[in-house]
Design goal:
alpha/beta; 24 strands; about 35% helix; Nonspecific Lipid-transfer Protein, Chain A; 8-stranded mixed sheet; Metallo-beta-lactamase, Chain A; 2 domains; globular; about 475 residues
């Protein structure tokens, strides 16, 4: 077996004379020029890649990136998790792929004699998955963005242990930093809400549970170059920070942490082939050079942003369906609490008030927006795409959004963003949940459902989400 890290979350595995690639974001950027591969991917790595199969863990664009997928022949077999929602399959078909194979949870599939894969789903109801690859007596556990704990993690370890290589993310992709209170001052820590070290300790707790021979910080190797988010590079937890933590704490003594960047590899005969670089010791300087090298690309995109506008009819088309699909229980919670969507560029601004309870969508004058308003603001180009593609969670991941509300209205704002996510992942309207596909998807995932019941009981007793995760990883 030979594997090679290609980019942020892209891994190539060669075994039995075949090549399996996962999550190929190899060219261009993600999330409206917000996310860039860091370190950058060399063109020769892209040119020489000829996968027999491509596995996609989930629909987020740093894992499911259409420009990269379009570089491969459309008859390449795409492997995806068999999820309750057919969203990933539908999006693949939209870009021309037809040879799509859905892998049931926990079912081992032989791709080629000597090369077996097993997909495991987790993170209900928003669809995330991991892949275990077994070949030549070597076991790789590509956990990627999934946060396996409790029974679901024990299932994997019981079936596939001992694990030789474990890959897992170690940085945040959430939008907490985008929240601004309109009635209170916020410190930097309050804006971020969490200690960035939390993601490192979660990575460490996972490794201590899995006990692989090698642990590889993965799926967090990106930077921000767009002018709206460049300052947020300090929030990205790079692998050297994980190593620094491991070196200064008494953790997983039987596992070796190995940092790997784009182009680094391992094979059964030669072991690791690790490049020498200063991507993390001189990170700020490298990112600044990347910005300079891509100035022309960014300037052209800024011009495109300034030409992009959103119209009231775009909001009416999306929220006309959305408002009607929200259950009455949630509508009551949103009574007298409309949300204002503000789309902006350098030339024009539009403000649209959406009242889910009253089922109204109307354009309003920005001057009428009071301090007590709940406002979702984004560049027009982001808002237009989110409305057209039903991708509001992607807008949050981009961090190119800003949320404004009073501190007391933060729960309402969170409810709005969660309902948008539920709409995106076919959780709403609730009628979509009642199908045989839902039953077939969740039947083998009963351990995950049991975990949610246990976690809910803990949180009802006053425990935090962090307490729950620590409990089930201990």
């Amino acid at each position: 077996m030979r594997f090679q890290v290609l980019s942020h979350a892209c891994l190539s595995v060669q075994a039995a004379g075949k090549t399996l690639v996962s999550d190929p974001w190899l060219v261009g950027t993600c999330y409206w020029r917000s996310w860039w591969n860091y370190p950058p991917v060399k063109q020769e790595l892209v040119d020489q890649l000829k996968p027999d199969w491509i596995y996609l863990t989930h629909v987020h664009w740093d894992h499911f990136q259409a420009p990269s997928l379009r570089k491969f022949p459309k008859d390449t077999q795409i492997l995806i998790a068999y999820e309750r929602s057919p969203r990933v399959k539908a999006d693949l078909e939209a870009i021309g792929y037809k040879n799509i194979r859905e892998l049931p949870h926990g079912k081992t599939v032989t791709l080629s004699p000597g090369l077996d894969v097993t997909s495991y789903q987790f993170s209900s109801p928003f669809g995330d998955s991991a892949l275990v690859v077994e070949a030549d007596g070597v076991t790789l556990f590509n956990a990627n963005d999934t946060k396996f704990v409790g029974g679901p993690l024990k299932q994997i370890l019981k079936r596939h242990g001992p694990i030789d290589f474990a890959f897992r993310s170690h940085s945040s992709a959430n939008d907490r930093v985008c929240l601004h209170y309109t009635d209170a001052e916020q410190t930097e820590d309050e804006r971020f809400y969490e200690d960035p070290e939390l993601y490192i300790t979660n990575f460490v707790n996972f490794v201590e549970k899995v006990k692989p021979r090698y642990a590889i910080p993965f799926a967090s190797n990106h930077c921000h170059l767009h002018k709206d988010v460049y300052a947020l590079n300090s929030y990205v937890m790079n692998p050297s920070l994980v190593k620094e933590y491991v070196d200064t704490h008494d953790v997983f003594p039987d596992t070796k942490l190995q940092i790997m960047v784009s182009g680094d590899s391992w094979d059964s005969e030669k072991g690791f082939d690790i490049s020498e670089h200063t991507y993390y010791t001189e990170r700020d300087a490298h990112i600044e050079r990347l910005l300079e090298e891509n100035t022309e690309v960014l300037e052209k995109y800024y011009e495109k942003e300034d030409r992009t506008n959103v119209k009231l009819k775009d909001f009416e088309r999306f929220f006309g369906k959305f408002n009607k699909g929200i259950p009455g229980f949630f509508k009551k919670k949103l009574k007298d609490k409309p949300i204002i969507f503000r789309a902006v560029n350098n030339n024009k601004r539009i403000c649209v008030e959406v009242d889910v309870y009253k089922d109204t969508i109307r354009e309003i004058d920005e001057a009428s927006i009071g301090q007590d308003a709940i406002v979702y603001e984004a560049p027009a180009i982001v808002m237009k795409s989110a409305l057209a593609l039903n991708m509001f969670s992607h807008a949050g991941i981009s961090k190119r959004v800003n949320y404004y509300c009073r501190k007391q209205d933060e729960p309402t704002l969170k409810l709005y963003t969660r309902l948008l996510e539920c709409w995106e992942y076919d959780v709403l309207p609730l009628s979509k949940l009642f199908s045989m596909r839902t039953v077939r998807s969740y039947w083998p995932r009963w351990r995950e459902l049991l975990f949610y019941v246990q976690a809910a009981m803990m949180m009802l007793s006053g425990k935090s989400a962090r307490d729950v995760e620590q409990k089930f990883l201990s």
